[in-house]
């Protein structure tokens, strides 16, 4: 009987072999594999949706939250969106082999830095089967093998998608060993992955704070352990209030279950009497519950359909992932900056203002992976920022920050070409 150690060891060894082959592969073959994946998402749509329906039904029976069920759900439109992202990655330049900082030293040595794949990437993720495709596509194009370990709540969806990716790779003439899918749902295998230094070169967790904390504490190899989003939008005294209503609504309501959705709204006291009722009326229509400080609560008062509650300290540090938002009135840009510094997670933060000086201060002083002026935090996304898709959104500062695309899945090596030079 195969143990979880046997399964991981076998798949890790296969991935290492696949990584060596993939690193030598031509860009045209890698792009063909990606096109095969995009086509397969359409041709196998029925089987993908059938598997996903089984996962969603099991999730409902097991009491998954609405936020997790939304992350789990696949639809024809969502599959079309995933396929479009895959095709966008095809159009991006292949970073592997790119030479930078090429120069000739006084002694005649020609030196430069050449981009190379990282090797084997391990992905541990929860709820979101689209991650199976997103991570596979970026790893394949950047020359990396991938070991996929999704959560048990999406096991059927992930298995179908992983088979699709493996078939697409083989049909393009690439090594099918470059894509490995962990079939067991035993959580103990996560611990084995985190101990697999030398077999896995990078671990990427995609999930909640508990998973990310565990990876940060136990991983024996480099890991991307940021990504929790406590995201803010500050409505400045010089804001276009109609614009601010639309931006806040989009950031909170468009897809509330994801990491770049808005969690806290900060409003300058000068515009709060005008802005808060406007904002409250629109958010009420979407069923948003507003956790308000005393001043915001007094301005909003009773409003038909508006759900309000007094905020507590925990509301400012919570990634809600639902139709819930904190609301706080501040007296200045400095107060807003202090709040974000104190309670933020360094993920996605925005200011709405027509004041250029305030906008530039916000960009300069907010230390987050993505900072926005007059735009929704929902744009902190690999596809939206021109990366095709993303491996993850990192709030770390080494080695990558923000949405991780192709370049963030490469390292470099120094290349040195001489004509017999020896060191004196």
Describe what you observe in this structure:
The protein is built from 14 helices and 16 strands. It is α/β, with parallel strands linked by helices and 424 residues long. It folds into 2 domains: 235 residues, Aldehyde Dehydrogenase, Chain A, domain 1; 149 residues, Aldehyde Dehydrogenase, Chain A, domain 2 (3-Layer(aba) Sandwich), CATH 3.40.309.10. The strands form 4 sheets. Strands 10-9-11-8-7-12-13 form a 7-stranded parallel sheet, sandwiched between helices. A 4-stranded parallel sheet has the order 5-4-3-6, sandwiched between helices. 48% of the residues are buried.
Can you list the strand order of the major beta sheet? 10-9-11-8-7-12-13
Global structural class: alpha/beta
- CATH top level label of the largest domain: Alpha Beta
What is the third-level CATH name, the topology of the largest domain? Aldehyde Dehydrogenase, Chain A, domain 1
What series of H and E elements makes up the topology?
HHHHHEEEHEHEHEHEHEHEHEEHEHEEEE
Q: Give the full name of the CATH homologous superfamily of the largest domain.
A: Aldehyde Dehydrogenase, Chain A, domain 1
The shape is: globular
Radius of gyration using CA atoms only? 24 Å
Mean pLDDT: 93
Largest sheet: 7 strands, parallel
Total discrete domains = 2
Strand content: 15-25%
